[in-house]
Amino acid sequence: MTRYDQILRSWEGLAAPLALAMADAGKAARQHVIASTEQEVAIRDVAAGVAAPALVGYVVWLLRRASEKGLRRLCFLSRDAQVFYEIARRLAPRLGLALELRYVYSSRRTWNLAAADPANLAAQDWLFNSFMRANAADVCTRLGLDSSAYGALLVDAGASVDPEVRADQQEQALALRRFVASPALAAAVAPSVEAMRGLVRDYALQEGIASTSTGLVDAGWTGRMIGALTTATAGLPQPQVFFWAHEPRESGWTDPARVHAFMYNTATGEGVTERVPDTPYIIETFCMSDHGIAAGYRRASDGRVDGIVETDTNPAVEEWGFGVFRETIYHFCEHLTDRDLVAAADSRDVIARVLRAFWLTPTPQEAAAWGDYPYDSDPLGRSTRPLARPFDDDHLKAVLNGAPLRQADRAWIQGSLARSGPLGAQVAELLVPSYSALGAPATD
């Protein structure tokens, strides 16, 4: 048994039968999926014991809620919802549900541009924010512009064109906002915004997104992207929205009448009360896809609007172990019995327990394998970093002497510490009381 088996098999309460069924399905998946390296073993075992319960539990809830609300279709947003789509295709027939399931193309890059106000770009946080803050070229690309044509305007605004100078530096952040506030830039951006808005609206109508009988499915978090869609498709019918979890910020978006969240919703106080720290990083990692970011839309000669992806494949993720991960998830689905699915109880507390065990106390093998995952939450897909990168000894010694821990570009702090030797273990122990209480990512 893995430690996740032990958690699931020892569960007590109403969810105990489901937890046991998940343990059995995870065991069967591990037996069927061949792992030829230590890394593949760690990928497979975490997929079977942690990712599969978290993803499948959501999809079972999602399908039931959609049916209860009388929805006719579910539209799964690329790329995070690809794995939810694949799970739903396998489970919906077994639950006796005849929902139409569609995989549709979307991205922060496209929908935010469609919703943008060219006369007020300086207030558009999506231009500058992400796990790795934007540089000058990123801002231009997000606006659909070639940065080489705006070098003089950038210099006039005091912005650096050095790709390593990013908006997490206050001087560069202010300069980039001055740059996008320029009337000349507003005039240049307006045609791109108008064109993208027209394509997004037509695509929403074509794919059934713009319909009150549709549910949009995504991993979730702040709701900004759905808010952008709502702005871009103003006047059209609006869909219901389903998130794994929802945690809107002041600059985010929510709508209690339309947004439904599985694990928790901080806008309404629903869901589990003890949230796992940095949950978005975990679920976004589990929601890896096999293609690149949606870069835009193209209108075909017959008038149809097609999504455009930057790459048809995702080589970095595939090299890491995508095939083993997805195969394990699918085998897990296959080995849940129909009776388990129909009788499934509330699985949220069970899921929170295995997520917490993995994320806060990874084994060295898990930290090494999953720490190598090429994590990238950038709207342009240009800021890939290992999920967990070791800290250097000098920094860890300083932390043990009272200095703050500098996370830098590490999404997984505990994984990074687990890869940092004995000093990392000491710092991890020191951080447990405060780190375990955190709930939202350090970056916006």
- Taking the alpha carbons of the first and last residues, their distance comes to 38 Å
Average pLDDT score: 91
Low-confidence stretches: 438-444
Structural class: alpha/beta
- The counted number of beta strands is 11
Helical content stands at 40-55%
N-to-C series of helices and strands: HHHEHEHHHHHEHEEEEHEEHHHHHEEHHH
CA radius of gyration is 22 Å
Assign an overall shape. globular
Number of helices: 19
Content of β-strand: 5-15%
Main pleated-sheet profile: 5 strands, parallel
Task: Give a verbal description of the structure.
The strands form 4 sheets. The protein has a 5-stranded parallel beta sheet. A two-stranded antiparallel ribbon has the order 6-7. The chain contains 19 helices and 11 strands. Among the domains are: 3-103 and 214-288 and 314-347, no CATH class; 354-435, no CATH class. It has helices spanning 3-9, 16-32, 38-68, 82-91, 108-115, 136-142, 151-156, 170-180, 183-206, 224-232, 279-286, 315-320, 322-335, 338-342, 348-360, 364-371, 393-400, 413-418, 421-435, and strands at 73-77, 100-104, 214-221, 240-246, 259-261, 264-265, 270-271, 294-299, 305-309, 374-375, 385-386. The chain is of the alpha/beta class and 444 residues long. α1 packs antiparallel against α2, α2 (16-32) crosses α13 and α5 crosses α9 (183-206).
